[in-house]
Amino acid sequence: MTPPPTTPPRWAVRAAHATALLVLPSGLWRIALALGHPAGYTAEGFADFQSPDARLWLVVLSVVSELLALLTIGLVRPWGETLPRWVPYVGGRAVPTRPVVVTAGLGALALTALWAGIPWWWTYPHDGMTDTGHLVVGILYQPLVLWGPLLAAVTLSYHRRRTRHRTTA
């Protein structure tokens, strides 16, 4: 039985929207690389990004990252509880809570682990980058540290909201 929808807390809505925004700076930087701007790399360091495969990878990584971050908004919007009617075959059906919570929870853990080292960006050598590029890229990637924890918090809010009215039989 799917519980009746409830309004998400304001903090969860803000956190969900923040995830989409905090992924944007690093994605825009990668797209600049893909478009041929050295974006903080020396000529030698930038050479690795000149192949069509590398450029495609940078764009795909940026778009997929942003789309995944945007999915967090579904945890605070009605379409995260009931699929929109326009979705073929399954439109109008309730979104099952458990798979969403498990997937988002695992994603939060993976993102937290993936970006945990970013605060120490400036202590790692980055051959092929200019000093200014090294500084700017570090700043652009710092917000990603928050992606996993924010996703975890919004996921917990979603879980509590969706399971609050369940009755045990």
Ordered list of secondary-structure elements with their pairings:
Blueprint: H1 10-34, H2 43-46, H3 52-71, H4 97-115, H5 131-141, H6 147-163
Total of DSSP H or I helical runs spanning 4+ residues:
6
| Rg estimate, integer Å | 19 Å
* N-end to C-end Cα span: 11 Å
Share in helix: 55-70%
Percent of residues in β-strands: under 5%
Describe this structure in words.
- Keywords: Membrane, Transmembrane, Transmembrane helix.
- The chain crosses the membrane at residues 12-36, 56-79, 100-122, 134-156.
- The protein has 169 residues and is mainly alpha-helical.
- It has one domain.
- The chain has helices spanning 10-34, 43-46, 52-71, 97-115, 131-141, 147-163.
- α1 runs antiparallel to α3 (52-71), α1 (10-34) runs antiparallel to α6 (147-163) and α4 (97-115) packs antiparallel against α6.
- The longest helix is centred in the first third of the chain and has 25 residues, at 10-34.
- The mean pLDDT is 91.
